[in-house]
Design brief:
This is GntR family transcriptional regulator. Keywords: DNA-binding, Transcription, Transcription regulation. InterPro entries: Tscrpt_reg_HTH_GntR, WH-like_DNA-bd_sf, WH_DNA-bd_sf. There is one protein chain. The chain is mainly α and about 120 residues long. The protein is built from 5 helices and 2 strands. The chain has a two-stranded antiparallel sheet. Helix 1 (about 10-20) packs across helix 3 (about 45-55). It starts with 7 loop residues before the first helix and ends with a helix. The relative contact order is 0.12.
Length: about 120
């Protein structure tokens, strides 16, 4: 499940974000506790807590004292907006720059994308 390339707490946060974006976790739905998460994935509870804390700091999860962690009401929209911005910055904008540099007209790119399945 976890790889060696990035810290585990970041991978935990990313997995929960993916579950929210995909709809596997709904807004205001309770998520596993850090201890449950740590036990399930056999990782240090402090590592799981660090991943959850990152999500709280980012406004993706919120705490209900004595009850647990929940998906924030706007989490899915927030994540989708961030991913959309990253997609344009990391994928589309460099592609357009390269296409211009090598003389590919924008309409050809649009045609190619429109024909992709």
């Amino acid at each position: 499940m976890f790889d060696d390339r990035r810290p585990i707490y970041l991978q935990i946060a990313e997995q929960i974000k993916n579950d929210i974006v995909s709809g596997a976790l709904a807004e205001d739905e309770q998520v596993m506790s850090t201890n449950q998460y740590a036990a399930f994935y056999r990782i240090n509870p402090a590592t799981a807590a660090k991943g959850f804390a990152q999500l709280v700091d980012d406004g993706i999860l919120y705490k209900k004292r004595g009850i647990g962690m929940f998906v924030a009401p706007n989490a899915r929209d927030l994540l989708r907006t961030g991913r959309r911005d990253s997609f344009f910055a990391d994928v589309v904008d460099p592609m357009i720059r390269e296409a211009k540099a090598i003389g590919i007209p924008l309409n050809e790119i649009v045609q190619r994308i429109g024909g992709a399945s």
